[in-house]
Amino acid sequence: MPGWKAAATGPRSQKIANYSNPRFAPLCNVTRRLRSEDFPNACKISLSTRTAPEHQALVGKNMVELGQMQGKTPLEAMIDLALAENLETQFLIHGFANGDENASAA
After folding, report:
1. Pairwise CA distance, residues 38 & 1, whole Å
2. Which domain holds residue 21?
3. CA distance 16 to 43
4. pLDDT per residue over 83-92, tens digit each?
5. How many Cβ atoms are within 10 Å of 64's Cβ, its own excluded?
């Protein structure tokens, strides 16, 4: 996805600026369209390690749960959490090694 590549390029400070800027059109367009049903693996991604003490209660919650708690899409919730923690948050993907279970089984 070109929007993600543009947003994720550069040093940490630039990535934070990109993800924080609601006018960053490529990322905003992608994020707005990805609802839970569009992001089927969101329920397999959970918060593993947090850096901010105020996020302790979120550890173990998946991105669908987090999005529902915050009234956001799973991807918006994930990005907002990562931004709140200076992109130091760690997420865990449960149940598959590379995102494609069929490829992993081959």
Report:
1. 15
2. 2-95
3. 25
4. 899 888 888 8
5. 22
